[in-house]
């Protein structure tokens, strides 16, 4: 059975009735949460009646068992704690844990390194008599992300550099050395049916273009087969085009990839008058290392360097790197990727980071070795969470567990380091950018919220910082850390209600922190 993804592009207007909540009700809400469910180390809110608490809960459709909340002030003191020590599924808030651990364990100067090397240098005729070897430590940004959306720019730069130094031909094979990571390319807990979707991209020590192919679909005459453009162009996959051009209706595109293969089927329909080039659709590839090698070999050929042999992975043929001859070295700073992980929530990049933690510790990079390093970080930082479960780095698994208190302690711990500005500014800013660009737009807290969103089935998470100023520098600014993990939605409102609740709590934090006498 193929994994499938469909995109319906018809414009469907949806109207939501925004919940009208007064400031006094919001204060009552947070006060009730804190007073009814737990003791406070710092009392901020007036004590409401139990009847008022029930009215507010009923209005939002929530009860205390549905969520966990922790708020720490700028000094790390607990302000509000609701089920804060309980284990919750964090969704993409898992990325906070992984990036904070990487910042501490690896340091902000850590680099992903990719090398092109061989047993010997090319001879006087520019011929490399043996194999050309490419080895990597997981760099997730060999793509078009920082190169004007052209994913081949970096490969072309490598080819031109080698050609300038005299390389004309590789007589052997292109050997793929991606053994820095284990061969488990997808977390076992991920759902198989989503394997072809961009957010379930496989992970390796060599990654290219987010391990996806990018399709743009164009109409032809009505009744004819649609035309497509695939980036990058590669013989690594086999594409069967079943997509039809129709006279009217809506755009419906399906991209299917058979599991454990690179057979891709494009199907669906595109209106003949559809505006061309306005949408890009993504489908994952199987085996990122070989994908990397096939595209690299193709680009080298285009740039005038012939690789006579095949693209293969064969550990037994790899010579000792210490005795090898380095032909080219490409380095990418880890922290450059933090906004990709935290602002834009790219899962593959977080999975790379988790495995890189294990690899940098001298082990084979894996979920297990990375998780061991995360736990070392927590121990070092004196943050305990006996209920924690790490099944992946991105939070896509619904088996991950962490407490809201652990998340706020992690956030507060980072706020005490010299890397705080870098970390905080890598997060989405409420009403401004990333996954929060459409939230807090009309709120007084706009520009003051630096947070990570999270969503999977029946889980909505929001954790981060609220600042007394929207300055990009933390100097002289008070920051409170918060974590709101909702693990069950009310029947009425669902995800929308969860987000409304989160935003109400965050706005209340901002009013308190911004108050003259706070």
Task: Report on the architecture of this protein.
The protein is an alpha/beta fold and 518 residues long. 27% of the residues lie in helices and 22% in strands. It contains 11 helices and 22 strands. Strands 3-2-22-21-20-19 form a 6-stranded antiparallel β-sheet. Strands 1, 11, 12, 13 and 14 form a 5-stranded mixed β-sheet that branches. Strand 2 (67-72) and strand 3 form a beta hairpin. Helix 7 packs across helix 8 (367-380). The longest helix is centred in the C-terminal third of the chain and has 21 residues, at 494-514. The model is unreliable at 7-28 and 32-57 (pLDDT under 50).
Global outline: globular
The biggest beta sheet reads: 6 strands, antiparallel
Structural class: alpha/beta
What is the helix content? Answer: 25-40%
Task: State the end-to-end distance.
Answer: 59 Å
What is the mean pLDDT? 88
Please work out how many helical segments DSSP would assign: 11
Strand order of the largest sheet: 3-2-22-21-20-19
The poorly predicted ranges are: 7-28, 32-57
Number of strands: 22
| Residue fraction in strands | 15-25%
Please give the radius of gyration in angstroms.
25 Å
How is the secondary structure organized here?
Blueprint: E1 3-8, H1 23-37, H2 50-60, E2 67-72, E3 78-82, H3 94-106, E4 111-118, E5 127-128, E6 132-136, H4 153-164, E7 169-170, E8 174-177, E9 212-218, E10 227-231, E11 238-241, E12 244-246, E13 252-257, E14 263-271, E15 281-284, H5 288-302, E16 306-307, E17 311-312, E18 325-333, H6 338-342, H7 347-360, H8 367-380, H9 404-415, H10 420-425, E19 428-429, E20 449-456, E21 459-467, E22 479-486, H11 494-514
Parallel strand pairs: 5-7, 6-8, 7-16, 8-17, 11-14, 12-14
Antiparallel strand pairs: 1-13, 2-3, 2-22, 4-6, 4-18, 9-10, 9-15, 13-14, 19-20, 20-21, 21-22
Helix pairs in contact: 1-2, 3-7, 3-8, 7-8
